[in-house]
Design a protein that fits this description.
288 residues; alpha/beta; 2-enoyl-CoA Hydratase, Chain A, domain 1; 6-stranded mixed sheet; 4-stranded mixed sheet; 10 helices; globular
Length: 288
Amino acid sequence: MPHDLAVAPPDRRRAHLSPAQSAPPVNFTTILFSISEGVALLSLNRPDQLNSFNPQMHREVQAALEQLRTTPEARVLLLTGEGRAFCAGQDLGDRNVAPGQASPDLGQSIEQFYNPLVRALRDLPLPVICAVNGVAAGAGANLPLACDLVLAARSASFIQAFCKLGLIPDSGGTWLLPRLVGMARAKALAMLGNRLSAEQAEQWGLIYQCVDDSQLRDEAMSLARHLARQPTYGLSLIKHSLNASLHNSFDQQLELERDLQRLAGGSEDYREGVSAFMEKRTPVFTGR
């Protein structure tokens, strides 16, 4: 029985690329991007515009995520924002329609920018942590939901603001919200556009953890560094299997578990984990 392979299993060969094969550095103007201790830090950096997306920021985020796929030293991605907001969604300055002008093609914008972005976050063969440092509205409220582990500052909030403009939740919102909080709450969030506090989001299961504002970046970075020392190829397989479970039947999922466990058992990290256990020492994983 075939199983859902809409997202291909992570390729362990990625980790065998040499630094010389990595993508060249890019001069970013709307994001901050760095890699240290196995952690890639990508921070949205248009604080005066509440980190709302314009085409330039979309292109820079896409370039950073593509660079991660060919950078073996990056083993975890931490996504966050600068200033007092995580992301206010789309920059509406690019969407204002003057009288007599044709309306913009929002479907084209989604096809070109937002859909590739949420797919890239969901399919990235790395653990992806999101630290929501302030308001997350519109598309900015749904991008974290495409990540693997979401932490939010206690003062942060999530707003499905689309309904206030006569729009529908995009960036995966209509798919993710019912699966995370149930249909009744998903419809209330989408149709009322009310502010959901970080504490309530944690209680509803929308995010992993709510932390004090002053501790958010430290907590997220500590978690990212921990994951960077773990068998990240195996973690990528866990990510793939859980994502696929949302589509698969029970029998399909059992077959997928068999296939992915076969891949995991052939990894260097599995050999190292067993050897370290037998030798009573701390394992040194490489993500291969």
